Amino acid sequence: MFKTFEQVDRGITANSTMMTVAVDPRSPNHVFCNSRDGQVFGSLDDGATWTTYDLPAKAREVRALAAG
Questions:
Q1: What are the residues facing 35 on neighbouring strands?
Q2: Which listed site, 9, 17, 27, 55, has its alpha carbon 20 to 30 Å from 39?
Q3: Rounded Cα distance, 46 and 63, in Å
Q4: Cα dist. 38→16, 32, 47 in Å?
Q5: pTM listed for this prediction
Q6: What is the full per-residue pLDDT of the chain (68 aa) written as tens digits?
């Protein structure tokens, strides 16, 4: 389980509080997180670079993430 956290915003801006983190158990360098207002961010290189994933317009909240 997670023991420490490090800020890895590298080029992304969350519009609200970050809520969850999900790590792919088969590929631990694949990390995903989301903000309270529905932004989803993903990294396929252990946090070196991040991509913002757009949700459908009606999706206003993300309450959980799963990776795998």
A1: 18
A2: 27
A3: 23
A4: 9, 13, 20
A5: 0.74
A6: 667 766 666 778 888 888 888 999 999 999 999 888 888 899 999 888 899 887 887 877 777 777 87
Ranges assigned E (strand) in the chain: 18-24, 27-35, 40-43, 51-53
Instruction: Tell me how far CA of residue 54 lies from CA of 34, 38, 41, 42, 51, in angstroms.
Output: 11, 9, 9, 11, 10
**Which is nearest to 38 in space by CA: 27, 54, 22?**
54
Residue 32 phi, psi dihedral angles, 5° rounding: -130, 150
Tokens of 11: 């080029």
If one counts every other C-beta atom within 10 angstroms of the C-beta of residue 50, the result is 18
Tokens in use for 53?
């994933």
